[in-house]
Specification:
Helix content is 44%, strand content 10%. It has helices spanning 35-46, 99-112, 116-136, 151-167, 175-180, 188-202, 212-226, 230-238; strands at residues 9-15, 24-30, 54-58, 61-63, 94-97. The strands form 2 sheets. The protein has a 3-stranded antiparallel sheet with strand order 4-3-5, with no helix packed on it.
Length: 248
């Protein structure tokens, strides 16, 4: 539909991707509104407050209101109207809001595939963003604790997560490869066993308790047993030991 034609009404169904149960809205808009107008409408109907960057992906091209950090957006969102695209019935396009969500998904994907280096790079970028928000925060800023988290608290959580990944980098398996090979990737059976052994030693009736180092070593041995790597690890320390006879 060309822009010279009279405006028509579009009925749009907005669905959050990757959320269960489904969260969606249905709205009616005129083809005469601009990309910027549609952005503001989506913010209102979803109950968002325009606190993050955004972009539309329509017909393979990125559109949106240009703010510092958005880069690569086509044209002026305040001038480009929906009628420019000539949408057909059931045609789809995407609207991305809050680029940090995409960064978090990347971190999860890297860790799943055992790519600790790239995961730490993304975590450091996220930490830099949190640190920037903390520096810009007004000392008198109040937060609704039921709906928001302070930048300082968020920054500390990201730093703790980064420290955990760095200290356990050598023990993070490639779950993607294990899954493709049909190997076990769930850890619930390990956790239940560990909880039973550790709680047995930590209960108040026991005269001796595990030290933090002892508990850590116990968990490492248990993981090696579960992964059938204990024998290999011992051989690497002490050379090849007497072969284990196979059951006939």
């Amino acid at each position: 539909m060309s822009e010279s034609n009279p405006p028509v009404t579009y009925q749009l169904k907005i669905v959050l991707v990757g959320v269960s149960p489904m969260i969606w809205r249905r709205i009616k808009v005129s083809s005469d509104i601009t990309i910027a107008d549609l952005h503001y409408i989506i913010q209102i109907v979803m109950g968002w407050k325009e606190e993050h960057l955004h972009q539309f992906l329509i017909h393979g091209v990125h559109y949106g209101i240009n703010y510092p950090g958005t880069g690569g957006l086509m044209g002026n969102a305040h001038e480009i109207k929906l009628s420019k695209f000539g949408f057909r019935e059931r045609e789809k396009f995407s609207y991305e809001y809050d680029f940090n969500c995409r960064r978090i998904e990347s971190i999860k994907w890297y860790i799943w595939h055992g790519n600790v280096f790239e995961a730490l790079q993304e975590i450091e970028s996220l930490e830099d963003l949190c640190y920037g928000d903390y520096e810009e925060m007004d000392e008198d800023t109040d937060f609704d604790l039921d709906r928001e988290i302070s930048p300082l608290k968020l920054l500390k959580k990201v730093e703790e997560f980064q420290s955990y990944i760095e200290k356990n980098a050598n023990f993070i398996p490639n779950y993607g490869e294990r899954y493709r090979c049909g190997e076990r990737i769930a850890s619930s059976f390990v956790e239940s066993t560990v909880n039973q052994v550790v709680s047995k030693r930590f209960v108040k009736k026991q005269q001796m308790r595990w030290s933090k180092k002892g508990a850590h070593l116990l968990l490492q041995v248990r993981n090696l047993v579960i992964n059938q790597e204990l024998r290999q690890r011992i051989d690497s320390w002490h050379g090849n030991l007497t072969p284990i006879p196979e059951a006939s």
